Amino acid sequence: MADRTQVAQRAAPTLSPDDLERVEQFTREPFTPDLDAMEPGTARRRAFDAALAEIEEGREHPSVEWRRDYALMLGVPAQRKAWMSRHGHRLEKRDAENNLVCPESGWRYAEAEPGKLRCLDWPEDKALEPAT
């Protein structure tokens, strides 16, 4: 059986400083230039490659799917440390009803069930409108 890491390393394009900057601006996430963290096949590199693909599709903001798949997860094994808004912000502020509130949009979020966050102000299956 082939070593998947070696296969991924051969297949993955090299990172350019321009791509790194574009992805960081797009996701509002710092992508470390640490070579180990950005090796092909790592979670960080998969998030980076997926964001770059969305940029190349012409998106202006990360999709809901990107945010869901690459939410802020830390540790081994990974544990969710925070929820992220559809606009890419860490959700920390709560309103009077204990809903999490996005600092950019003001949209409210509630945990629909353990481990599943739902936006109360925008349909989950509807794309974000372009920024004005």
Task: Briefly characterize the structure.
With 132 residues, this protein is an alpha+beta fold.
Write up this protein.
With 132 residues, this protein is of the alpha+beta class. The protein folds into two domains: 1-70, no CATH class; 81-132. Helix content is 30%, strand content 15%. The chain has four helices and seven strands, in the order ααααβββββββ. A three-stranded antiparallel β-sheet has the order 5-6-7, with no helix packed on it. A two-stranded antiparallel ribbon has the order 1-2. The protein has a two-stranded antiparallel ribbon with strand order 3-4. A hairpin with a 6-residue loop joins strand 5 (100-101) and strand 6. Helix 2 packs across helix 3 (43-56). It is globular and about 45 Å long. The mean pLDDT is 80.
Biggest sheet, in brief? 3 strands, antiparallel
User: What gap, in angstroms, lies between the N and C termini?
Assistant: 51 Å
Which stretches are low in confidence, meaning pLDDT under 50 for 5 or more residues running?
none
Domain count: the total is 2
Say how many strands there are: 7
Topology, element by element:
Elements: H1 4-11, H2 17-27, H3 43-56, H4 64-69, E1 73-74, E2 79-80, E3 83-84, E4 90-91, E5 100-101, E6 108-113, E7 116-119
Antiparallel strand pairs: 1-2, 3-4, 5-6, 6-7
Helix pairs in contact: 2-3
